[in-house]
């Protein structure tokens, strides 16, 4: 035997006789051992730019582990990823000082005690920095952008809930506290229309608008129905222009319903059609998931369009049609090599257009030229886009 073998046998004998455990590393030659790293560093991203985009991936194959990918639209690259809970929703304030996620967790992963929470993330480290419990829960469904949203000043996060009555939970994200619940009977989703005001769409085609105070006490009024929900329903994902105090709802048959939300109660402009006679004869129509976006400064509305018969409203877009919201005329279109379910546009003076395909790829275009700048693979089942400054 070698001296090393004699030493190891002696150690093993000593351990058996005395009952003292011998460290595993003592049984290895020195060249086979490595120091254990005890410290971990967190990369710090640069401050968010106008072309930062968040892509929410619900990951249907394993719903308890959703992801939010952080994209640099200029570099066309993934900067990082935020781990979020079961069918979450994101919200990004205009100042982009934080990122919020309304999430759900179960104590045993897929079962056990349920906890609903609003988590606050740092936009540069992507680490969670605080959380607020939602005691009334939250609505669990395929993520819709307006399941949760921020008021126009970014102070309150509003989270839709149905258990089975419909309410909106109010969280003061600045004070890091839950404020209370506001009842919205017969209505759903949250469209923020002011610093302490939001609207919800109702089962009869009306909008309910609620105004609340710092204690969560609210008053609400219901409008008359502004569309015919039987003959021509609306998509629940409108394009929202906060700086114009306008929402643009798109109908299954291609009508645009502009809503002025600058006042305590909404007012409804005359609807207009996106389709001329030729487009109608070719059976062009809107479709997708998050199918419309707006650039307020340029007064441009972007809508995903495809060819198909009626009731193909879930079909992905073959093109993005661009409209001037003042003239109500189509001023351009962008052909999509990969058909898209969601669209977003950056809010700066040199905007980028983003389209999200069913194949989990994000295409990026220059709005002015329509040029395709590149494509980024992102996640497994991404559904929603959140552009900086929306």
Textual characterization of the structure:
The chain folds into two domains: 85-225, Methylamine Dehydrogenase, Chain H; 232-390, 7 Propeller (Methylamine Dehydrogenase, Chain H). The chain contains two helices and 29 strands. The chain has helices at 3-18, 277-281, and strands spanning 52-57, 66-72, 77-84, 89-91, 99-106, 114-121, 128-133, 148-150, 156-162, 166-172, 177-183, 187-194, 197-202, 207-212, 218-222, 239-241, 246-250, 255-260, 267-268, 272-273, 284-286, 292-295, 300-307, 317-324, 329-345, 352-357, 361-366, 372-377, 382-387. Strand 4 (89-91) and strand 5 (99-106) form a beta hairpin.
The strand count comes to 29
Q: Mean pLDDT, rounded to whole units?
A: 92
Tell me what portion of residues adopts beta-strand conformation: over 45%
Estimate the helix proportion, in percent: under 10%
State the end-to-end distance. 75 Å
Number of helices: 2
Question: How many whole angstroms does the radius of gyration measure?
Answer: 26 Å
Q: Give start-end ranges of low-pLDDT stretches.
A: 7-20
Shape: globular
CATH architecture of the largest domain: 7 Propeller
In quaternary terms, these chains amount to single chain
How would you characterize the largest beta sheet? Answer: 8 strands, antiparallel
